[in-house]
Design brief:
It is a single chain. The longest helix is centred in the first third of the chain and has 14 residues. The model has no long low-confidence stretch (mean pLDDT 94). A hairpin with a 4-residue loop joins strand 6 and strand 7. Helices cover 40% and strands 16% of the residues. With 201 residues, it is α+β, with helices and mostly antiparallel strands. The protein has eight helices and nine strands. It is elongated.
Length: 201
């Protein structure tokens, strides 16, 4: 069995490559331990020492972890959107660093912690318009982040920012925006989105 110092060195060294976020399976590789009971004993010892923190079931973090990476590991096949992506693209002011908004195909969910992560569910037809960042985390393109925001607003979601005055629609690629808008069947929503982007409110 490796000594604890070597365990910690591996944990911190590999933490840089995974954004400071580990799944239990990744920790199994880090510690070279496949026995589940032994693995949990090692993990619990690092939790007690403060080196590791448990975020949710089978997801753990070390200090200075990447919140975006965390959101991608908690729910795989999710992409960051809404206010979080709008802020990343500088379409709105700074978003709260303690809240991340994501889109999933599966069931919507909310995870309370540091940060809080909200996952909103979209139909498969509307699951598009995102690309990976340098760490492999999927981020909505500016045009899709706006569409997601307007779509959920039209379905009753409230935002801390004003969708009519606080989003810089002039930064969008209008050709791409309206091409993406064609994926939506609801004519009322398409009119609403078009008027928002064209500054008609």
């Amino acid at each position: 069995m490796k000594n604890w110092l070597e365990y910690q060195e591996n944990l911190l060294r590999l933490g840089e490559s995974v954004g400071g976020v580990f799944s239990l399976m990744e920790l199994s590789s880090v510690f070279g331990e496949s026995n589940r009971v032994s693995l949990h004993n090692i993990v619990n010892r690092f939790i007690k020492s403060g080196t590791l923190k448990r975020y949710c079931r089978e997801i753990y973090t070390i200090a200075n972890f990447d919140y975006a990476v965390l959101s991608a590991k908690v729910r795989q096949n999710s992409y960051i959107s809404l206010g979080s992506a709008l802020a990343m693209h500088r379409l709105i002011g700074t978003e709260s660093p303690f809240q991340i908004f994501c889109i999933v195909l599966s069931k919507a969910a909310y995870y309370k912690g540091l940060p809080n992560i909200s996952y909103y569910s979209l139909a498969k037809k509307l699951y598009f318009g995102f690309a990976p960042n340098k760490k492999g985390v999927l981020i909505a393109e500016p045009e899709k982040a706006v569409l997601d925001t307007l779509y959920f607003y039209s379905h009753g979601k409230k935002f801390y920012f004003n969708i009519f005055s606080d989003i810089n629609y002039n930064m969008l690629n209008k050709k791409k925006f309206f091409a993406y808008l064609e994926h939506y069947n609801n004519s009322k929503f398409k009119t609403f989105a078009s008027r928002c982007v064209n500054g008609e409110f």
